[in-house]
Amino acid sequence: xxxxxxxxxxxxxxxxxxxxxxxxxxxxxxxxxxxxxxxxxxxxxxxxxxxxxxxxxxxxxxxxxxxxxxxxxxxxxxxxxxxxxxxxxxxxxxxxxxxxxxxxxxxxxxxxxxxxxxxxxxxxxxxxxxxxxxxxxxxxxxxxxxxxxxxxxxxxxxxxxxxxxxxxxxxxxxxxxxxxxxxxxxxxxxxxxxxxxxxxxxxxxxxxxxxxxxxxxxxxxxxxxxxxxxxxxxxxxxxxxxxxxxxxxxxxxxxxxxxxxxxxxxxxxxxxxxxxxxxxxxxxxxxxxxxxxxx
Length: 295
Description:
single chain; alpha+beta; Helicase, Ruva Protein, domain 3; 2 domains; five-stranded antiparallel β-sheet; 6 helices; 11 strands; globular
């Protein structure tokens, strides 16, 4: 599933290409793509017709686009946003209007100020989706209501390091479980958790109650660094299911130190990287650099 860097790459592409454009028509080609829009596909397309897209925003693995009327000065329905979750395979693609429809094309947007290009939401596994929602009153980010429980992410300027440390200590769990808890810190998934823990020399089963303030600071620094590196590389692509809006894959997978590196020598000490089953996933770590905590 795309994590923060991959979703941010998509957000930046949408901001560059779609922000400020007015929707002439939206066509839903598969009802599952808008299943979270409870009023149905017809209502979804009706409410988007004539709406102007604001600057896309993101929190963790979610992105949304504020909606304005065609003048760009007011919202068509106060506090409305187009919310997108990419799921396992969701893609936003900018395509020539006359190009053949993708096999898994789910939603198509046509704009009134672009005659030869449209925006497509393609989703092979249909775990992602689009929906329209009210935004939280008074929220400075215009956060859609379904995201009220999602914490800020570590590259958000408003992320509170001290509050995170206190919440981490109070969780009484293990560190990787805490990093994947989107109500505590958002945007970190399995790949970047393993990478940040490797950089911090922390075992994934380290109890959060043992985390000191300096260790938390070091871990947050590692998370931000690995996400910054991934952003610079366009994200991590293991297959064709993650691409940016131009259809290009990221290449951060070439720089992974722990995730997916089973039996390869640790780049720091040379010890073979190990993989262990973990919560229906896998955890990758160096047994020498990241020793298991004492029971």
